[in-house]
Amino acid sequence: MEKKRVFSGIQPTGQIHLGNYLGAVKNWVDSQDEYENIFCVVNSHAITTTQNPKELREKTYELAGMLLACGIDMKKSNLFIQSEIDEHPALAWVFDCNISMGEMSRMTQFKDKSLKNPKNVNVGLFNYPVLMAADILLYQADGVPVGEDQKQHLELARNIAQRFNRDFGECFKIPEPMIPKIGARVMGLDEPANKMSKSFNGANHAIFLLDTPDEIMRKFKKATTDSQNSIVFDQKRAGLYNLLNIYEIFTHKDRRKIEDEFEGKGYGVFKTMVAEVVIEALRPIREKYEKLRSQKGYIEEVLNEGANKVRPIAKATYKKAKEFVGLV
Ligand code: TYM
Predict the structure, then answer these.
(1) For 43, which of 16, 25, 158, 299 is 20 to 30 Å away at the CA?
(2) Which of ligand 1's atoms lies nearest the C-alpha of 184?
(3) Which of 113, 173, 219, 271 is catalytic?
(4) Domain span at residue 90?
(5) Both 50 and 144 in a single domain?
(6) Catalytic-labelled residue, pool 76, 198, 265, 296
């Protein structure tokens, strides 16, 4: 039987954090054998916010290196840079001409991002979800493994595909969101009401995959919890719940067992133990990245190979879409 195809992407806008890892990248790595995999460093999405060109170029390669260090295996997966394949923005334009302003105006991430950065509310930022739909639909993906914050964007991609197929002819697969049961929304350690994010500046907000063991320990020790003293899974206690979820994912223990383990223990011991499992889980990634970072030639090779392998799929889909709308 043919394997189902998954497509997903990540922006090279800052260091990859525990939210990106648990919500998306870890799942890409863990299910590589099960699917045909296409993963993309979405640098064209990154320029919807202001970027320094030299830094963007560097961050793009760094992120690709990080994904390899996390365990993306080129024998099982294709990894490429979005801007290397011209069909992404080209298909997005075809979609643009078939989406109403009203539908686009409902995208909540656009509203959030515009409020955060009122000086640079550009057309690309508004259009961001359309380019994302093009990324996915070009490759006829069956599934899209992402964190919970991408749910609305995926819904839009599905709507775009369904409408196109209805109005012009069968052209696109309708992709299913693949959102993990735990880890889909990792919260900031300092402010558990907000999701962990690359753009938050607080020193204790996010755990980055390249943080040293000391930094990880310090951040977990300072994590915001509450003044109660039982360590139990209770969604209403957001800070504690977030830490417990992180512990649960890395230890694979069930919830009852975790609660038993921490019965009668205080936050000090608990936070140290969470930090320790995270330090151990991230150690091999950091070590592998240290070896890979100097091998820019190898990373370039991997990315070129990835782009060359997936380009024919993108070209075939775009050609079909052009024919359907009468552009050829
Ligand atoms: P980006 O770079 O913001 O995030 C990459 C992935 O990390 C997930 N994520 C989280 N998961 C759990 N908890 C968090 N705190 C957290 N923060 C981020 C995101 O859900 C995402 O899966 N729009 C995408 C990039 C993109 C894309 C695509 C994804 C462009 N085209 C096509 C899938 C398919 C994004 O913002 O990524």
Answers:
(1) 158
(2) 12
(3) 113
(4) 5-184+296-324
(5) yes
(6) 198
